[in-house]
Structure prediction request, 355 residues.
Amino acid sequence: MADKVLMKGNEAIAEAAIIAGCRHYFGYPITPQTEIAAYMAKRMPKIGGTFLQAESELAAISMVYGVSSCGYRVMTSSSSPGISLKSEGLSYLAGADLPALVVNVQRGGPGLGGIQPSQSDYFQATRGGGHGDYHMIVLAPASVQEMAELTVKGFELADKYRMTSMILADGTMGQMMEPVALDLKVNPAPEKPWATTGTKLSRKHNIVNSLSLVPEELESQNFARFERYKTVEENETMYEEYMTEDAEIIIAAFGIAARVSKNAINAARREGIKVGLIRPITLWPFPKAPFARAAKTAKAMISVELSMGQMIEDVKLASECRVPVTLCNRAGGMIPSPEQVLEAIRAAAKNGGNK
Prediction:
């Protein structure tokens, strides 16, 4: 068994990015993800990499665009308002089909909000993040170990499908400390024949661009891009199931909400209530299949969220509205307690699935 190191979630992301071959990081400090930038500032110069604190979030995401177009693994990180500032750049990355890893360690909102954990950027992440027709691969870790593992996975998926991957973590995941094994399996970056590496008179010029002034061409690009997204949906969906085999009530939760929910599920099981958890690990593509299966036998579903209710819409769609889906939530930086989730489970059991 590999030795483990006690690390913050943010630090685990940064070290895992380096292990994955990332040698270029551009960012701007904002709580609760600043440790990622601080870690990169210390480590990158020692390994011949580039750390640059940009003058703004807009500049940072533009630098990501430039480095990615040259074929390198590159990363930026921020927290909720900072990601909003990067949203135009996210759309440009999608329009140019450039791979990159973006980390959002969420804080409460809207607006400047507070520095406490939240999951209220779910819509922003899973519906694209900026203007236009596109998707990002969105990965939601629920432990410091997963913070590291999904960082590597994010780089690999980004390269495989030429699209942006996002780590969507709540502030708790970024700030909490847990033992983490860093013997991470890494697939090296593939050849990128489209990259702007210089022709050396051996090939035609590569052009990386998101501008298309001919409507028919832009339409064709969008259709082709969504065919690729369909492949992602078919092959890259990830989720965890916990005690779902005989469950009559299904909890849907990710990140810290899933950890809280497991405690509530264990307590409910001791009371004889048959309840289980489906934890989406990919928020996009959303794991529709396990919810569709569960909806055939479950009496009710509960979406546990650190928001006013965003993932609940995808849970309803995935379950095809066959069972009632209720919301158990806190917002503004508050976290549902196991007791609150347990009360929601008890209410669902008492109601027998009735709305």
The longest strand covers residues 100-108. The mean pLDDT is 96. The chain has twelve helices and 15 strands. Residues 4-235 form a domain with the Rossmann fold fold (CATH 3.40.50.970).
